[in-house]
Amino acid sequence: MVASEIANVGSADVDHVARMMFVSFRELSPDWLPTLSVAREKVADLLRTECFSRVMRDETGEIVGAISGVHAYGRLWELHPLVVAPHCRRRGYGRSLVEDLERHVSANGGLTLQLGTSDESDRTSLFGRDLYPDIPCFISRLRATPEHPLDFYRRLGFAVVGLIPDAEGPGRPSILMAKAVRHR
């Protein structure tokens, strides 16, 4: 596996990342990337901002994953987005990309890495629920289907630190996760 910066790849590779994001988020977050052209614009935005962005290639040179992170404020960084091609999941690519971002965050004085993952498609125990009456209770009982990335991030050491009810529409919350990032 070889990681390289998105900024150093050609326009055909940017299109590949956009297609990978569009396909990967089509079911989990359909409103975020409703069209391939919107996905291309998101990738272009990553190139125009001060993001840390990487792609991962397999041994054939094909892009199999991509990640970006941005300094939010203080010692806090945000991971957004992470994508691995559907046919390449469960091979360690996502873990490697997150660990690469963590090394960058730590080397740049970051102490915390956060992310948000939403449930827009009934893949957690939160979907369709009014969460306001007891958010801590809903966090403690939170479960996800295998298709939702919640458990992937938990295996990498992220903890659920909050919920934003109705962030993506009625009964469609955002799940806030974070982890400590230390110098290695």
Question: What does this protein structure show overall?
Answer:
- The chain has 184 residues and is of the alpha+beta class.
- It is 32% helix and 27% strand.
- It has five helices and seven strands, in the order βααβββαβααββ.
- It has helices at 11-28, 36-48, 93-107, 135-140, 150-155; strands at residues 2-5, 52-57, 63-73, 76-84, 112-118, 159-164, 174-180.
- The protein has a seven-stranded mixed β-sheet with strand order 1-2-3-4-5-7-6.
- Strand 3 (63-73) and strand 4 (76-84) form a beta hairpin.
- The longest helix is centred in the N-terminal third of the chain and has 18 residues, at 11-28.
- It is globular, with a radius of gyration of 16 Å.
Care to give the gist of this entry?
This protein is globular.
Spatial separation of the terminal alpha carbons: 21 Å
What is the N-to-C order of secondary-structure elements (H for helix, E for strand)? Answer: EHHEEEHEHHEE
Report the portion of residues in β strands.
Answer: 25-35%
Main β-sheet, in a few words?
A: 7 strands, mixed
CATH architecture: 3-Layer(aba) Sandwich
Please name the CATH topology.
Aminopeptidase
Helical run tally: 5
Question: Which homologous superfamily in CATH is the superfamily?
Answer: Gcn5-related N-acetyltransferase (GNAT)
